[in-house]
Specification:
With 255 residues, the protein is α+β, with helices and mostly antiparallel strands. The strands form three sheets. Strands 1, 3, 4, 6, 7, 8, 9, 12, 13, 14, 16, 17, 18 and 19 form a 14-stranded mixed β-sheet that branches. A three-stranded mixed β-sheet has the order 2-10-11, with no helix packed on it. Strands 5-15 form a two-stranded antiparallel ribbon. The protein has five helices and 19 strands. The longest helix has 12 residues, at 9-20.
Length: 255
């Protein structure tokens, strides 16, 4: 059972700002509308809005194609995830799952609060040129406002995973949110069993493409059923930014 709420356009715009994590003060002009294709697509992001210039001139942009990685003694990812009652939002660019406060990730003694996770298809990240069917981005923020994103690659499988529970409740129209009254989503169950990961510095993958984002891409993918992949693609057939130049950045992989 779930309850469907139709959001006002202004509320949808606010949710869109949360996805890009670029919302400013209330008096700040609304950023330009952007898309993945066409006249407002990826190739034109930098020209759509002065605040989007980094999309075109940045040197540490995401996503990337991970061709090589240097083994390193990276700190363990300690997930303080529990079961929550989320709200599921269609913000006009993706389906985003907002979680209540109290979910967190600790890396090298630093605590980052989980804000939300959302989906892209195909995966934005590539492994030696290969894309996955989807990816889930878990967006965290520390007390100083620094962002850390954990990427979980999603591949088709017969048994699926806890992600299928989310993908069973997709708001189909932009500006809608689903509150699932009797759903308890175990966030820990969304993660792969192996917490090994790739580590690099990058950016947001949507405008304003702000840099200084700490990326942690999980090495082990998680399975979702083909039915649920198609269900997401029925809402968003393609919402992935192409891979960006590495520009000399080092990618590390946990030993």
């Amino acid at each position: 059972m779930f309850v469907l709420h139709r959001l006002h356009v202004a509320a949808a715009a606010a949710l869109l700002a949360l996805t890009s994590l670029s919302a400013g003060a209330a008096e700040t002009p609304r950023p330009a509308h952007w898309e993945y294709r066409g006249a407002r697509g990826v190739a034109h992001w930098a020209q759509l809005d002065h605040g989007f210039e980094t999309c075109g001139i940045g040197h540490r942009q995401s996503p990337i194609d991970i061709q090589h990685a240097t083994p390193a003694p990276l700190p363990a990812l300690e997930f303080g995830y529990t079961a929550v009652s989320p709200s599921i939002v269609n913000n006009g660019h993706t389906v985003q799952v907002n979680v209540p406060a109290g979910q967190f990730l600790t890396v090298a003694g630093k605590r980052l609060e989980l804000l939300q996770f959302h989906f892209h298809t195909p995966s934005e990240e590539r492994m030696k040129g290969k894309e996955s069917a989807m990816v889930a981005h878990f967006v965290h923020r520390d007390e100083k406002g620094h962002l850390g994103v954990v990427a979980v690659l999603l591949e088709p499988g017969s048994k699926g995973s806890a992600f299928d529970t989310v993908l069973d409740h997709l708001p189909r129209l932009a500006g809608e949110t689903l509150t699932v009254a009797d759903l308890k989503l175990d966030l820990q169950a969304l993660l792969p069993k192996d917490h090994g990961y790739y580590d690099f510095e990058g950016s947001l993958t949507t405008p304003p493409c702000s840099e200084g984002v700490h990326w942690m891409v999980m090495r082990q993918p998680v399975k979702v059923t083909a039915k649920h992949i198609q269900a997401f693609r029925a809402v968003y057939a393609h919402n992935a930014r192409p891979v960006q130049p590495l520009n000399g950045r080092e990618v590390k992989v946990s030993q």
